[in-house]
Design goal:
6-stranded mixed beta sheet; alpha+beta; 5-stranded mixed beta sheet; 60s Ribosomal Protein L30, Chain: A; Immunoglobulin-like
């Protein structure tokens, strides 16, 4: 197009070209990570603290994405290194901290005494000493003591321990107590102590009562003819009791002492009391009592119980009703004779004597107490002797 000014211009380039630049400074990210506690026991916690700048993206390994700054509690189960990474336009910054976890358990188990003493006589425990079990377990979340079960991390328990055995004889046993402690970090510890129990289990007083005989019995040594059922039962009880005792003390002796009442000649009553003791011995042997553990003696009509002594025995007889006692006392003469037709038993090891309790409540009491008895006269006895024969 016509341009008037252009006619006045000289030669000039049609365009000019050039280059320009500018530098923009971008800050490099910063990152700092720390822990309030770097050494932990299992179950304890530590506080992580961090700060970063110029980094829109912040992450802590084992924790996850976090704010650019902050703090957080951690409870590691094992030694753990926490790595913080901060990423921004200016680059990447890192920081690390290690929290060490102690998983080891320190445990201690002890006894105040390694030995206790136990003694039982019959059903009665006469000695039962104790021991104190003491324990501690640090850095443990679960603590148990076998055979007590779960317990606190530290404590004490008084032990009164009975032996496992129940039969007669010496006691020599060991009871083990084992502490097992664990934690969530894989730590474990075991401690064991042994408690020694010594002593004895002894039989108590034997169930023994004296055995009574009918007038002038036995004429021979046949047990089936001279012993009434109630007295056989008494002898069977003595046999069973004594055999149990022999399992504890094999050399024990049972002394059988025969007596006769005051009627009759001294020599006759001596032989009669000997037969009574011997018959009781034979019956015990038939029940399994070793003959070597039985001794006999006889006193005839010597050492007879007096009326006053018999009355005292009646008063002491708890199984005798007041009514029966009154009836018996009215016939005290016959009762004194009946009490003296007997065999007593003495346990040599302890000196225990059989109870002189007359079997008033048995079915055969009337036959047993009869002063005349089932006796048949001896062919050579005179009339006077028949009236006063030994009993």
């Amino acid at each position: 197009m016509p341009w008037s000014r252009g006619e006045k211009l000289g030669t000039a380039p049609r365009f000019k070209a050039g280059a320009a630049s500018a530098t923009v400074a971008v800050a490099k990210p910063t990152a700092e990570l720390s822990a309030t506690t770097a050494q932990l026991n299992c179950g304890d916690s530590s506080q992580l603290k961090w700060a970063s700048s110029d980094a829109p993206q912040v992450e802590i390994k084992a924790v996850g994405t976090v704010a650019v700054s902050g703090e957080q509690a951690v409870q590691p189960k094992q030694t753990t290194t926490y790595d913080l990474t901060a990423v921004g336009p200016g680059g990447t910054a890192t920081s690390s901290v290690t929290v060490n976890v102690n998983s080891a358990i320190q445990a201690n188990l002890s006894l105040s005494s390694a030995e206790t003493h136990y003694k039982r006589v019959g059903d009665k425990v006469v000695e039962d000493s104790t021991a104190a079990l003491n324990w501690t377990a640090t850095n443990a979340s679960n603590v148990a003591i076998d055979p007590l079960g779960a317990v606190d991390a530290s404590g004490s328990r008084t032990l009164t321990v009975a032996p496992q055995k129940s039969d007669f004889g010496p006691v020599d046993e060991t009871v083990n107590y084992t502490l097992k402690a664990t934690n969530e970090c894989g730590g474990a510890e075991t401690q064991t102590v042994a408690l020694h129990i010594v002593g004895s289990i002894e039989p108590g007083a034997l169930a023994m009562r004296s055995v009574y005989f009918q007038t002038d019995r036995p004429g021979s040594l046949k047990s089936e003819a001279a012993l009434l059922p109630s007295e056989k039962q008494a002898l069977q009880t003595i046999a069973e009791e004594f055999k149990k005792y022999l399992s504890f003390k094999s050399d024990a002796q049972l002394l059988l002492t025969g007596y006769a009442d005051r009627r009759g000649p001294k020599a006759y009553n001596q032989r009669l009391s000997e037969r009574r003791a011997e018959l009781a011995k034979r019956f015990l042997i038939e029940q399994g009592v070793p003959e070597a553990n039985i001794e006999t003696q006889a006193f005839g009509n010597q050492k007879s119980l007096t009326a006053n002594e018999v009355k005292q025995l009646l008063d002491q007889d708890a199984g005798l009703s007041a009514e029966t006692r009154q009836k018996v006392v009215r016939k005290i003469g016959n009762i004194v004779l009946a009490y003296n037709r007997r065999v007593d038993f003495t346990l040599s090891a302890t000196g225990q004597e059989s109870a002189r309790e007359y079997p008033f409540n048995t079915d055969d009491f009337a036959r047993l107490v009869d002063r005349n008895g089932p006796r048949k006269a001896h062919p050579v006895e005179t009339a006077a002797e028949k009236a006063s024969v030994g009993n």
